[in-house]
Amino acid sequence: MIKRTCSFVLTLCLLSLAALSLWAKTEDAIPYPKGYRYWAHVSSALVGPQSPGFAVNGGIHHIYANEKALEGYRTGQFPDGSALVADFLETKESAGLTTESARRRIDVMVKDSKRYAATGGWGFEQFRGDSQTERLVTAEGAAKCYACHSKQKETDAVFSKFRK
Which CATH architecture has domain 31-155? Predict the structure, then answer.
């Protein structure tokens, strides 16, 4: 009887921990930024075949910012609620004309100084291709994102500059 009770309690504890871990992941997850293509266009870049990162990052990159992030571009300090999206698109070439092709991924940065205190107030996420659910950033990956972005102290960890 005691063995069954212990087993039952252990099972309940494990199920509770599993449910709590799923809830925590959902709570911490950065949502897919629906409608980001209607946000302000910040800038674009072309990563060509000469780049060492071409295999993974080659193509056209468009950066978009929500209204709160525009304030950050003006002041150098991004307020909580700022969101930035880097849209990574492959390219195709025909008769000397380079155009956008399939989406590689989108990178998302969201500012929430309390929620993401460990990474300078920024949360990081990537979504594969056109998927709104296939996430690519792990906790370790977010730490790596921040390690690189944190070098941009004068612009609150943001690399892009608003093209007027």
Answer: 3-Layer(bba) Sandwich (3.50)
